[in-house]
Amino acid sequence: MRIRISLIRFLLEAGFIILVAAAVGLARLSTLWIGVVMFGAWLLVAFVERTGSRGPRRRQAAEEPVQELEPQPEPEPEPAVVPLLLRDPTPRAWNLWELEQLAATKDGDATRVEERALLLLHLRQFASAGGDLPAEFDPLVREAFGSDLAELVT
């Protein structure tokens, strides 16, 4: 339907310009006046076209801001699933070598990777020969590795 209306509007505008040209030609005006009158006819057609094409948008725009201004609540983020063993607040001894393997397999932002690497480097001096860390370092390890520790627990 929209194509038909635009086609009809185009034919009416073209017909108007042709009629103006014929009338100016029959009036035997000078070339300068023919140009001025045809330019005026073209401006009139352009004005009608512009206002005609903006009309429905104005009506929509008048209705839409009321809907757009209503604040949309942001969706709540999905809760992170933390394994039951990580929820246990009892401090435990972590193995430094397992933590290093875990850090090597996990990709992340460069800052977090560097932070983990430096932490593991400094923790080496506190680890036993088998790589076990004292339980006092449990909160530090949990903070640095977070939910990635679930792979070591299972």
Tell me what you see in this structure:
This protein is mainly α. The protein has 2 domains: 2-69, no CATH class; 84-153, no CATH class. Helices cover 68% and strands 0% of the residues. The protein has 7 helices and no strands. It has helices at residues 2-26, 31-69, 84-87, 96-105, 110-123, 138-145, 150-153.
Number of strands: 0
- In the residues, how many domains can be counted? 2
- Main structural class: mainly alpha
Q: Any idea what the radius of gyration is?
A: 38 Å
* Weakly predicted, low-confidence segments: none
Shape verdict: rod-shaped
Distance between the termini: 64 Å
Q: Give me the strand/helix succession.
A: HHHHHHH
Biggest sheet details: none
Helix content: 55-70%
Mean pLDDT: 82
Strand content: under 5%
- Helix count equals 7
State the main characteristics.
mainly alpha; rod-shaped
How are the elements arranged and paired?
Layout: H1 2-26, H2 31-69, H3 84-87, H4 96-105, H5 110-123, H6 138-145, H7 150-153
Task: Summarize, please.
The protein has 154 residues and is mainly alpha-helical.
